[in-house]
Design goal:
By secondary structure, the protein is of the alpha/beta class. The protein is elongated. Strand 3, helix 2 and strand 4 form a beta-alpha-beta unit.
Length: 327
């Protein structure tokens, strides 16, 4: 019997072809089709919690996250059940970094406000007075794959001065890119003209940027968030924007998602919004799909996947392969 794979949404065609060659695949799957599956491939939804895993049943061997963040996966619950959890950390780097830079420039150049004016919106022309990025200070919070790439684009391409805060990255690694690491978040907040967030959502980073932090930012500064919505206290962000302390914000993520239609952030002409599409590009989707499918097939063969997030669970339920090694 062929293994069954539950896929939350579509995959890149090439990855889909490879997966359907070795497994019965349910695309755009719902919860009714979850029981009896051997693998699931998900994005930032749904919540892969203990109830989700138990609904899938004892056949479930691997949860593959097509992307980086796994805040929607209960990894301890998976480990307890012998279920492997994998992600694709390299795949969305370029697309998400480019999206962050696009949002930065859209803010600085008032792109969306100008678009709305030409389409008939009643926005004063004074709101189109922009900011030149060259020579300004970019503060990068979280200096992992995406944060480093954003720093590189902005330093080399836009000639911005880049500082970064990440307690887990040493200064030598940053210095190689011409980036100055600062000792604490407050220093970055006080110095940066633009701040871009690239941290995983954990209990420590939830509301990392709250009212106190927003008010420590320079008057007239900008905030960009392409990480996770709950990293920023939205209510506090709305207040400081309404008061005029910040010049603007650009958000690809919200808390909750999707945002309510009456969320004030959707109606401010100094806020740029996108619907969590930072990695939603041709090559980004291809790389995430391929990375997830590769690892699912490896688990089915009894092979250890390269981006295993709970190595203590290995081999778990994957101890008995369901595919031949040459399949």
């Amino acid at each position: 019997m062929r293994p069954r794979v539950w896929v939350e949404r579509g995959l890149d065609p090439e990855a889909s072809t490879r997966l359907t060659a070795v497994a019965d695949v349910i695309f755009e799957a719902d919860m009714d089709s979850l029981p009896g599956c051997h693998a699931v491939i998900i994005s930032s939804r749904p919540a892969a919690n203990a109830a989700f895993m138990d609904l899938a049943g004892p056949t479930l061997r691997v949860i593959a996250r097509a992307g980086i963040g796994v805040d929607n996966v209960d990894i301890p619950a998976a480990t307890e059940r012998g279920i492997l959890v994998v992600n694709t950390p390299d795949a969305p780097t370029e697309s998400t970094a480019e999206h962050a830079v696009a949002l930065l420039l859209a803010l600085a150049k008032r792109v969306t406000a100008g678009d709305r004016i030409l389409r008939g919106a009643d926005i004063p022309r004074s709101r189109l007075f922009g900011t030149e990025a060259r020579g300004r200070v970019l503060g990068v919070v979280g200096f992992g794959r995406i944060g480093r790439r954003v720093a590189e684009i902005c330093a080399l391409g836009l000639k911005m001065r880049v500082i970064a805060y990440d307690p887990y990255v040493d200064r030598e690694r940053a210095a190689a890119l011409g980036v100055e690491m600062v000792d604490d978040l407050d220093t970055l907040l006080e110095r940066a003209d633009f701040i871009t967030l690239h941290v995983a959502l954990t209990p420590e980073t939830r509301h990392l940027i709250g009212e106190r932090e927003l008010r420590r930012m320079k008057p007239g500064a900008y905030l960009i968030n392409v990480s996770r919505g709950p990293v920023v206290d939205e209510a506090a962000l709305i207040r400081v924007l309404e008061e005029g302390h910040l010049a603007g914000a650009a958000l690809d993520v919200f808390d909750p998602e999707p945002p309510a239609p009456d969320n004030p952030l959707l109606h401010m002409d100094n806020v740029v919004v996108t619907p969590h599409t930072g990695s939603f590009t041709d090559l980004g989707v291809k790389a995430m799909s391929q990375g997830a499918v590769d690892q699912v097939i490896q688990v089915f063969r009894g092979e250890r996947p390269p981006f295993l997030l709970n190595p203590e669970a290995w081999p778990g339920r994957a101890a008995e392969p369901v595919l031949e090694s040459n399949t």
